[in-house]
Amino acid sequence: MPSPLLPSGPQRTLALAQLTNSVGDGAYYVTSALYFGHVVGLAPARIGLGLTVAWAVGSVVGVPLGRVADRRGPRGTAVLLALATGCAVASFLFVRGFLPFLAAACLYATAQSGLAAARQALLAGLVAQQERTGVLAHLQSTLNAGLAVGAALGGLALSRGTAPAYLGVFAVDAVSFFLCALLLARLPAVAPVPAARGAKGGVLRDRPYAVVTLLNAVLLLRMPLLSLGLPLWITGRTGAPGWTVSALFLLNTGAVMLFQVRAARSVSGLASAARAIRRSGVLALATCGVFALSAGRSPAVAVAVLVAGSVLLVAAEMLQSAGSWQIGFDLAPAGRTGEYQAFFGTGTTIARTLGPLVLTGLLMGMGVLGWLLLGCLFLAASYALSPATRWAAGTRRGDAPAVAPASAAVQAAAA
């Protein structure tokens, strides 16, 4: 079994920075809606509107910020954006109206999006190409561990339910990003890369990469599936008790912490990444089929079926994550990792923005048939990524690793 710790040096510092700010993020995620409603005084519709606008702005601005990381150096850019994120969180402590909230939320989302891209560029400059997916798997495990700790801290604030408790959580979140900035500043500097000839159009003109990003966004619908679609299904269409939602979330978080590194070991290039994503599509189809079987069952049977589906879901998630990390990095031209990773990251925003509409329409509107259609959507996107990746790889200079043909996916999924 792989070691739970990364080697000492830049990789471990990156993990510590990830752990630090993910603790703050975990506390933020579980308390933010109630904080903005009870302390800031906003109506739920305005909270949703403000956060949707903020993340849309952040995903758009994140691409030029990723380009800044490439051109000016990812370490300094990451440090500044971590400080900016901390300041944005701190500003939430003082806003008491919609427009100030919207401004602070836009700053927060923009800084977060840029920080994610700058950190990916920093990782690319500090970690050898063949080691990146493994390191990212460790970082994902660290992220989940931090989110779990932060969620526990947020739970304490929720149990108190007072304004000072919520304010304390947001103060902890702000401090976590300031500590993250200090840790990032300890990393070795990565030299900036001047703009290459022919790169004037930027990532937005790279149509093959855009197609890969869009297909990956479809696969990322698993994120709102876990946080929104499945809870609505459990409470509205099954006899499972309400606590099942929390139990399945803990199962997912714990499994990623324990097994993401192992799941990523099979991914070492574009061919193995495409194969892993196809396997994830097969598992996602099976997941949807199992979840559909929970409709109308008795509480005990429904819980058992939902647990089985959740095991399949987290297996699909870990394979899809490992494959997408490899593809997102390997298809980024040299010296443009920050810009390309920022664009690749917009897939998360697309999934989180459109996912609630798609999932509620399919699952709550169509029931069992909706689950089957969703599973087929996952499968189709996972298989389509193979030719899209070959297309993108073929447009790069030099010989790119070949992507394995999709015909081996079913056998690979059973391996």
Q: Which characteristics define this entry?
A:
415 residues, 15 helices, Growth Hormone, Chain: A, single chain, disordered C terminus, globular
Write up this protein.
By secondary structure, the chain is an all-alpha fold. It folds into two domains: 10-185, MFS general substrate transporter like domains (Growth Hormone, Chain: A), CATH 1.20.1250; 206-414, Up-down Bundle (Growth Hormone, Chain: A), CATH 1.20.1250.20. It is built from 15 helices and no strands. The longest helix is centred in the C-terminal third of the chain and has 32 residues, at 299-330. The protein is globular and about 60 Å long. Mean pLDDT is 87; it is low at 398-415.
How does the SSE layout of this entry go?
Layout lengths: L9 H30 L4 H29 L1 H19 L5 H29 L5 H29 L2 H23 L21 H13 L2 H16 L5 H22 L5 H23 L6 H32 L6 H8 L1 H21 L1 H27 L14 H6 L1
Helix pairs in contact: 1-5, 1-6, 2-3, 2-4, 2-12, 3-4, 3-6, 4-12, 5-6, 5-9, 5-11, 7-13, 7-14, 8-13, 9-11, 10-11, 10-14, 13-14
